[in-house]
Design goal:
The protein has 14 helices and twelve strands. It is α/β, with parallel strands linked by helices. The strands form two sheets. Strands 3-2-1-4-5-6-7 form a seven-stranded parallel β-sheet, sandwiched between helices. Strands 10-9-8-11-12 form a five-stranded parallel β-sheet, with helices on both faces. Helix 8 (about 255-270) links the parallel strand 8 and strand 9. The longest helix has 30 residues, at about 140-170.
Length: about 400
């Protein structure tokens, strides 16, 4: 069967699907990944076909306030909609849609008759258990949380509306709003599998049965891949270091963040590894090493803790390694996942990016590394995650859907 996994966004929105795609490939399917062009190497490393989507989240800037984030999202979606149907047309028997591509994929599925399945790395359906991931960390009560969840979906529909109108015209479909299509999928119990761990976020108690949580999906790592020799030498030269990295966030802030990171590490008496990322972190010294793209699965178990932006994928990777987090959330859903890490005891209270200083980071690092409770909570979550088998659950669901 020809399966197309379609996703879009930053690296954290794409990388988990390489592991999922590899599992489906090993189950005997022909699997392609549709994403923006910069992620072709990730697909190819996992042995997946790659179909480029004509949008680039980096083209719309690094935004941290919510209004700017909405404007950037609308521009990104407008670009995305232009090439979505082309990616599907290359040959597809089953569509697996992320939360960022489902509002477009539903219309392509209607036009082509191709069956589809949701594969989300974030919870988007309203629930009374917590407020929407994009609105922050404060609970509004059960009624308030559900109301806020519906409003968040309404705002998503507004972002997608122009792209949906153009896409349906291209597909020669009758007019149908983004909101009405979403309601149609919801009332029709369209199945969605969620790739996050219940160790970090329990499945909402009021979700319908068609909304499942499988456990987190890990990015693909080539069997036998090793860490670079220079990094191995650094790890062997002293006690486990702390990694500091902000992933796809903080573009252009490398000099400031590097100074803060080194100051904090030295105040806390810790060795450090700076992962350059989009920010361009860099520092030299006997107690600090700068690295580029390194698989989390290989490096994180060798560390004392990780300072990170609390994206869903990185948060899961740190938990899987069984080590403490020091979350420094920047934007979007990151404050939500940062708060969840603290709530389960695997991290001290988050340090918001806007208030980050060397002194505050040093305090959080000292707490994370010196207080054994954070490592114990993360290790417990790691044991929980080890038995979830998230990719196996998707492979089984695909077999049932088409069988």
């Amino acid at each position: 069967m020809r399966i197309l996994i379609a996703t879009a966004g930053s690296r954290g929105d794409v990388a988990p699907y390489t592991g999922l795609g590899a599992a489906l490939r090993e189950a005997g399917h022909d699997v392609a990944l549709a994403a923006t062009g910069s992620f072709a190497p990730l697909a190819e490393e996992a042995g997946l076909q790659f179909r480029p989507l004509p949008a680039d989240p980096r083209a719309h800037g690094d935004v941290q306030d919510k209004r700017a984030l909405m404007r950037a999202a609308a521009a990104f979606v407008a670009d995305l909609g232009e090439g979505f149907a082309d990616a599907v047309a290359e040959g597809t028997d089953l569509l697996l849609l992320s939360a960022t591509t489902a509002p477009l994929g539903w219309h392509v599925a209607e036009a082509t008759g191709i069956p589809s399945l949701g594969v989300y790395v974030q919870p988007t359906a309203p629930t009374g258990d917590f407020a929407p991931t994009v609105t922050g960390t404060r609970s509004l009560g059960r009624i308030g949380n559900r109301t806020a969840g519906r409003f968040a979906l309404h705002m998503t529909d507004r972002v997608f509306t122009p792209a949906v109108i153009r896409l349906r015209e291209r597909l020669e479909l009758p007019p149908l709003s983004a909101a009405r299509m979403r309601r149609r999928r919801s009332t029709g119990a369209w199945p969605v599998l969620h790739g996050f761990s219940t160790a970090l976020l329990p499945r909402p108690t009021d979700w319908s049965p068609h909304l499942r949580v499988t456990g987190a999906w890990s990015p693909y790592v080539t069997p036998g891949r090793r860490l670079p020799d220079g990094l191995e030498d650094f790890l062997a030269a002293g006690p486990p270091p702390v990694l500091v990295g902000f992933g796809s966030m903080a573009d252009g802030e490398g000099e400031r963040l590097s100074e803060i990171a080194v100051q904090a590490l030295r105040r806390a008496g810790l060795r450090g590894v700076l992962q350059s990322g989009s920010a361009g972190l860099a520092a030299d010294g006997d107690d600090v090493l700068t690295v580029g793209d390194i698989p989390h699965a290989l490096l994180f178990p060798r560390l004392a803790a990780v300072v990170h932006h609390a994206g869903a994928g990185t948060a899961a990777a740190v938990l899987r390694a069984g080590i403490p987090s020091v979350p420094v959330p920047v934007a979007a859903d990151q404050p939500f996942w940062a708060a969840r890490l603290a709530a389960i005891g695997a991290a001290p209270p988050p340090v918001p990016y806007r208030t980050l200083t060397g002194e505050r980071l040093a305090g959080a690092l000292t707490a994370a590394v010196r207080d054994p409770s954070f490592g114990q909570a993360s290790a417990a979550a790691s044991r929980h995650m080890a038995v979830e088998n998230g990719t196996d659950a998707v492979v089984t669901a695909v077999r049932r859907l088409v069988g």
